[in-house]
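sry for the spam today, last one i promise. struct tokens for design, 249 residues
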């Protein structure tokens, strides 16, 4: 009897932790204005780690011979599965944030290249960095598809599109100019460089590792009529195509 009570207390504790775990708030808490910060990789790591801990606890409870709280355990598995969808969305924000950094860096490299080349060779000299920058911008636009209603995403898309248009105008002006000076020396000397944001140093878990962890959280739900609370095998887990962000070449 004492063991059954202990087992039920553990089930109730996991159930309470799942109910208290509002992962959506990690996405929404700073989304009121377009300048608010985006979720970080640290948020994603913490979310996955928390759900992994709860999953291990549920697996351990399922290995027990006690039947106490079986329906409650089934609800816990369902709650775990529901929160996995939020983790997938959280990762979309983190991927987008990484691409913002790549975009700013590629734009900065393109601007630096404009300063290095003689005026007469602007078009041919900036070809490669221009293509790279456009590819990163295209990836960023595609990555925003599922989250583009967030004001922070809208702002970054607008900012980077405008910056890209300005860079294209610079390239056009340089190719038509007869000045021998670097491009920015022919403009207002108070003009500022395109801002470049530092990449986060948090690399304790790779994005591929995080994807694998997210996939592992998709555990089949146990049958309520089962005598054991471990989820039965349903012939494999669902997989999601979550392409990791890689550094631009």
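last one done:
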């Amino acid at each position: 009897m004492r063991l059954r009570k202990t087992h039920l207390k553990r089930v109730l504790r996991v159930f309470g932790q799942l109910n208290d775990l509002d992962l959506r708030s990690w996405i929404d808490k700073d989304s009121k204005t377009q300048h608010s910060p985006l979720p970080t990789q640290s948020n994603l790591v913490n979310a996955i780690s928390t759900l992994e801990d709860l999953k291990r606890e549920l697996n351990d409870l399922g290995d027990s011979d006690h039947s106490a709280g079986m329906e409650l355990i089934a609800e816990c598995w369902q709650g775990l599965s529901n929160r996995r969808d939020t983790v997938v969305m959280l990762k979309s924000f983190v991927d987008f944030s990484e691409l913002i950094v790549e975009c700013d860096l590629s734009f900065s490299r393109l601007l630096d290249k404009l300063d290095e080349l003689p005026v007469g060779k602007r078009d041919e000299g900036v070809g490669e960095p221009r293509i790279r920058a456009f590819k990163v911008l295209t990836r960023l636009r595609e990555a925003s598809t599922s989250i583009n209603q967030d004001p922070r995403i809208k702002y970054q898309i607008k900012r980077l599109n405008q910056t890209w248009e300005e860079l294209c105008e610079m390239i056009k002006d340089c190719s038509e100019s007869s000045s021998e000076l670097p491009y920015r020396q022919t403009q207002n000397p108070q003009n500022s460089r395109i801002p470049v944001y530092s990449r986060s140093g948090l690399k304790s878990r790779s994005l591929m590792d995080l994807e694998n962890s997210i996939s592992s959280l998709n555990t089949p739900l146990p049958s309520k009529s089962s005598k054991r609370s471990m989820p039965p095998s349903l012939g494999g887990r669902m997989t999601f195509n979550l392409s990791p962000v890689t550094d631009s070449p």
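DSSP finds eight helices and no strands in the chain. ok im logging off now
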